[in-house]
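Lecture 7 notes: from sequence to structure.
We start with the chain below.
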Amino acid sequence: MKSAKSRAAYFAERIHESVAGMGTKDDDLIFLIVSRADVDLESVKTEYLRMYGKSLVEHVKGDTSGDYQKMLLALCGV
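Predicted structure tokens for the same chain:
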């Protein structure tokens, strides 16, 4: 139902859930970013910032490192 109201908000929430708290849910984070990269990641990034007051890129940088981080940031357009 949430996805029908605002697809970008739905995916922003799912991505946030994958990085929030102790430990990153890496499989979820990878799937969500890869699946949105060619479709609507820009609108998800905008919605993420609106909903959480911190950019998606900042959260990815804070929860990842190395080549894994570089790959996710590249998909985010950084």
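Points to note: The chain is about 75% helix and 0% strand. Residues 7-19 form the longest helix (13 residues).
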